[in-house]
Amino acid sequence: xxxxxxxxxxxxxxPAPLRRRWPRALAAAVAVAVPTLLFVWHATAYGAWEIDxxxxxxxYARSVATGHGxxxxxxxxPVEGFSNPAWLALLVVGRWLGLFDxxxxxGVPDYVAYPKALATVLVAGTFxxxxxxxxxxxxxxxxxxxxxxxxxxxxPSFVIWCVSGLENSLLVFAVVTAAAVAVxxxxxxxxxxxxxxxxxxxxxxxxxxxxxxxPIYAALYPIAALLLARPVRxxxxxxxVSVVAFxxxxxxxxxxxxxTFGEWLPTTAVAKSQGLPTVEGFAKVTxxxxxxxxxxxxxxxxxxxxxxxxxxxxxxxxxxxxxxxGLVAYGVLVPDWMGQHRFASPVWALGAVVxxxxxxxxxxxxxWRGRIAAGTVGAVALVLSGAGWIAAGREFxxxxxxxxxxxxxxxxYEFNAYLQxxxxxxxxxxxxxxxxxxxxxxxxxxxxxxxxxxxxxxYWRTKDTAGVxxxxxxxxxxxxxxxxxxxxxxxxxxxxxxxxxxxxEIGPTPNNGANWxxxxxxxxxxxxxxxxxxxxxxxAADAAQRATPRASCxxxxxxxxxxxxxxx
Length: 568
Fold this sequence. Notes:
Radius of gyration: 26 Å
Number of strands: 7
Structural class: mainly alpha
Shape: elongated
Number of helices: 25
Strand content: 5-15%
Low-confidence stretches: 1-13
């Protein structure tokens, strides 16, 4: 702290004459555009794929936009089965504007095009924040932006989750922009003023309304101000202002949650059993080092250490604060089954800009021999890291996790066809996947994972599978039930006498799965045969969708549709 106290803030760059601003603006635009185009090119490798969990938010966005309120499906009670209200709001606005959940963009379904376009805009905004910070910390802001943005856009984990239909791009934008605001304020000698305090607090609130771990970034400005701003009294006051700016919108949403859903936490958080931090949890951080590349991380650490002795030190310190907070959040969160380090998106972006700033700063101080040596080591590190990223990207491309469109086909369309085969317009379904099912299904869904079902969420919190079976078989009594993979033996329905008495298997499904129907729903002798005929067509449709896991599943996701499956 003593060393930090003694270091004066770097002098701000004087404003450029007007005739020099246009070239600088053009250079800034190019610096942002280059990595953005790399991001878009990288994203095309994953096609129209979106994760099924994104379909949950899509379903809620449709319900809100059409006046049914925050419900998974019209007619269900309000349940906070989403944990990204800010991203949900952007989807709702898109639907109101006719950009989402209406049709196609030049032949591309808008449920694919709109979220991916929105993510691209936010990623470009993140790279613009890179440039804004680099402008006051480096003599070569365009080079820093291209290097940092290029690294970020090359990391499969970052790109995959930004174009997954989920909220990652919005979280990264909020966090990196807050860091850039703090950096620029400090360099201009205005960190301990109310404007950056309020801006950082509001951006932290945006992060909090985007992801459950977002509130941790409310500490960004207070930590930076107490480390670097003087006098201390002013820093403390502005830290309090920032906390208040964060608490007002975040607190308003909490009040809305309590009055609307009657819960302190979203149902998703309850179901995922998020607990207190553990040593084992923080050990996950080492996985990020392996993914980034050990040599690359080592080189980055050395460069940052060397740069902290230079004029950009204070700016790097500020950027290291949210990077550290991101690593803490990653360590605290329950491990995610979706893979590719879904919760690490801010870490990749912040790590890239810190290393890029440090690299440019250090290399500028070296002689030509030192630059050759540093360039060689850096190139080797990037090649080794890049080889790992290429392998990770190819692996995901070959088998993307939980495609939403696969669930649309084998849960939404399929069970719609079952209902039609029984001559019914209504029914209920217990299933482990939720997003695609809710988007097109007419059967009222009970979420087997508990994300949008409060009773189920409480059972999942304690892994009480006996309680789940009691609740499903005695209270929900769904018309249909679906189970497969690890979910099937974990739930244990097959061995329950009540299940055996009340349900009959329609037919097997891939991944050791099956679908069942209640016996009392079979109201005529030919009903089961009709269901099994539908099941045969559904298996073919499922196989076709699995063969193209990065494909979309129709121009519009219409509730009640049976898609490629003919009803009987």
